[in-house]
Amino acid sequence: MYWPCEICCDTHGRVTEQLAWAEPGSRVSHRFEYLMPRYCQIMPQKAAAQLLRLPASTLSDLLHRTIGRLREGYRIRGLKTIGVDEIAYHKGHKYATLVYDLDHS
To answer: Can you give the pTM of this predicted structure?
Structure first.
């Protein structure tokens, strides 16, 4: 984890350094934000926290913040009603899930 430096300038007041490899206000790098959810996909959060040497609560907070930021770019605009259907396309347990926009289909 990294804490950006702050300086007090007589002209500009308190200024925090900007880092190209981290989001403004974040204490972790872009690479760490990419790695952290991958670890949490393949192991429990507690094990990922131990591996990354973070408290589990800190990892959870960072994970929620990172996922929230990633989801903002994938919002579906104008969708009001959806239909979800699951069909079997082969004997056994082979299914396809269909998602419809019921207002525009």
So the answer is: 0.52
